[in-house]
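user: can you give me the structure for this one chain? tokens are fine.
assistant: on it. calling the predictor now.
[tool input]
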Amino acid sequence: MKKTPSVPGWLDIGAGYESSAASERIERTLAWLVTEHLPIFLAGTGYQSGPAILIGANDQELLIDKPRDWSPCPKIRIIFKDKARLTNHFDVRILSESLDTLRSSRPKEMFRLQRRARYRVDVPHGCHVSFRSDNTLHTGLILKNISATGMLFFSKKPMSLSRNTIQDIALSIPAREEENILTGWQQKKISQGDVVRTYHDRQGGIVCYGVAFRSKRKEEDELTRYIRQRERELILKGLRV
């Protein structure tokens, strides 16, 4: 029986990302995308396609089904979901194009974004949270990051949170990162949560609070959808850095 060659594991590079430059892994992934006709998305500076497919891969190049709304980009990021439904991507250069096909270079490295139950994403600047602690309403607190199961916010002064339980949590976040600050905001509401961590950031002169949500299923599902959207924004943002 022929043994399947082992493939080196993923390397943790921080911020929830892993990378792999293993040629065997890249080859298998490309073959899987081609064989299964799985949807991929193309993104470049100022451009993002609808679903497309990878129609071929050889030693020199990739062949990509040209999106109908294709806008020429010298470098693109190809984004797709793997078998575990994790978001993966790799970057390639466009070599040439015809009426219905794009030809690109081959990827040298792949990346994937883990989505663990407690995986947190940083929120855009200006997001804030309000909540009640007993009969006291706290508003305008700066939100740093969130997950489907919790959040981290901070205050410039220590807060007195009775019994460390908070209610009526309202997260103010943009519908999209580039939305107008006056019109593009939405609220995500959570019934209650527990303050499970408090620490002083002396360098920043702030006090940080970690909260574990005790949310209803519908509330958690709403947050999960936002986390997935935010993941995509962060991946696309990397094209502009």
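assistant: here you go. The longest helix spans residues 217-237. The first strand starts at residue 11 and ends at 14.
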